[in-house]
Amino acid sequence: MSQETHRALVLPSLSSPPSVETIPKPTCTSGSALVRVIVANVLPYAGMAYSGNRGTPMQTPLVIGSAAIGRIESVGADATLLSPGQLVFVDTFVRARDDPNTSFLFGFREGPTEGSKKLMAEAWRDSTYAEFARVPLENCYPINESRLLGKPEEGGLGYKIEDLAFLNMQAVPMGGLRDLNVRAGDTVVIAPATGSFSGAAVQLAVAMGVKVIAAGRNLKVLEEIAATSDRISIAHLKGDDVEADIATLQKFGPVDAYLDISPSAAAKSTHIESCLMAVKPYGKVSLMGGITEHIKIPYMVVMFRSIQLRGRFMYERDDVRALIKLYEQGLLKVGPAAGYKPSPKYGLNEWEKAFEEAAKVSSWNAQVLIAP
User: What is the DSSP string of 104-116?
Assistant: First the structure.
């Protein structure tokens, strides 16, 4: 393979499957970094999205991809912090520099505005399922390699590179928890707490010093999550009696905040009403889920209790930096000792198997990776 080309997983259209192609190696320009990709995350719904079966809009053809861990190959002339050789987390939530309200998901989904479509089509079309990726400078977050990957006897935490890929799953709920401004000692309901992002939210909240009420209907999974910390309590919701579920939530004391990360299928569930009504006066609620239908809100409860109700899409850059700090300080632990499962890795040519395996993942402690 010459230095002028590299291998990449290219999606020609939403009606044709991806294929591994040898294409020109991207060149580094001002405002960007060229990253040699080590591992990249595979989302559980990647197979559906890239086949056009999920209704995910994107510009094709493109090199598809997701968040990644990689090493800086080169940087633009305007880089002041990043340098060749650095290990970085590549975040795929790309925002326009002249308009932070314009954004898209790198290698996965264009945004709803003309600006976001232009950003994906003309500036950052090709993503991380490739040997190299050209990435916005601000989407590369330096990782303290000696601290996170170093040997414990030398002051390191002994993680593997694939352990750091869990940053992708954890960044989303980090945005919600920081938006709620939760503090050590607060009590926060997280519901449903049994999914990938919501389960990650539980681990994050514990690392931030929060007392967590993990709510949901799958008692077995709730018990597995609660076993990871003595600051996690279980609220096993029945779903057929709102008042009973409120009492279950409130038996642990006043609820300061509620973080909701409901899937689209939960539109008719009563848990949102129950959890919201369990929040104390002047409490806070953040909606981060994927429900597309209208939901029932207890209007008078929200009004009389002066509850702050807000939505949160993704996260801010400071949230990602704060997340990495939790890693570096040893407060948020990953790896087998913290209950995380081994991360299977697949080469570019094994993308079909990677997509199939990722579709089976639905927990906070599991992930599938592509290793170009």
Answer: EETTTB--SSHHH
Residue (of 313, 307, 295) closest to 109 by Cα position? 313
Give CA–CA dist 328/150, Å, rounded: 11
Distance CA 95, CA 113 (A): 12
Residues 6 or more apart in contact with residue 100 via CB below 8 angstroms: none
What global pTM score does this model have?
Answer: 0.95
Q: Helix 271-278 vs helix 242-250: angle between axes, to the nearest 10 degrees?
A: 40
Q: Six-digit token pair at 43?
A: 């989302």
250/213 Cα distance (integer angstroms) = 10
pLDDT along the chain (372 residues), means of 10: 86 96 96 98 96 91 98 97 98 95 94 93 96 98 98 97 98 97 97 95 98 96 95 95 96 98 93 97 97 93 98 97 98 94 97 97 95 98
The upper half-sphere exposure of residue 249, i.e. CA atoms within 13 Å in the direction of its Cβ, equals 34
CA 254 to chain centre: 29
